[in-house]
Design a protein that fits this description.
7 helices, about 65% helix, mainly alpha, two-stranded antiparallel sheet, elongated, about 170 residues
Length: about 170
């Protein structure tokens, strides 16, 4: 056999166990190559804005993180000013409301950051469950106040719009 002739020329002869192992590895390699799985499908699906799947040529990997929950703020009306055809008086009133919200937002975000730090410290320092709950409760109250204030300023801003502008707003905002 050719294999034996090659092996006999080696400096150190190979025993029958090593020969069996080499033949087994060769057989395993051939078996793995022959039985490899089919390549993955080149069909990709993405959800459209209505949640329906549609086939696409390539997957969209532009953002691996889902978009956050959008909650409107008065600045969103200012961004849509041209589309809503806001008058000068409306622009100034919405800007005033937006400035008030930004001030309140800054105060609330600072307090939320403090409350968040307190929650983390209560966990890190091993405070009792009661003290942890108090820290979390403070954060929860501030979070709710933040959302209520945001909503109140938003409603104040859209109250400046006329009926036609409110209908248009529903078309231009998510």
């Amino acid at each position: 056999m050719i294999v034996n002739q090659i092996l006999n020329k080696l400096v150190r002869p190979i025993g029958p166990g090593t020969m069996a192992m080499l033949i087994g590895l060769l057989g395993l390699g051939i078996y793995s190559f022959v039985t490899r799985p089919e390549p993955l499908s080149s069909r990709y699906y993405e959800a459209d804005s209505k949640g329906q799947l549609r086939e696409t040529a390539k997957p969209n990997v532009g953002s691996v993180h889902p978009a956050g929950l959008w909650k409107p703020e008065p600045d969103d009306l200012l961004d849509q000013g041209p589309a809503l055809r806001l008058g000068q008086g409306q622009l100034h009133a919405i800007e005033r409301t937006s400035d008030e919200w930004k001030l309140e937002k800054g105060r609330l975000e600072a307090r939320l950051a403090e409350a968040s730090t307190a929650v983390i410290k209560s966990i890190e320092k091993g405070f009792s469950v009661v003290r942890r709950r108090e820290a979390i409760e403070e954060y929860t109250v501030l979070s709710r106040r933040y959302d209520q204030q945001r909503q109140a300023h938003w409603e104040q801003a859209i109250s400046i719009l006329d009926e036609t502008q409110r209908r248009k707003l529903k078309e231009v905002l998510p």
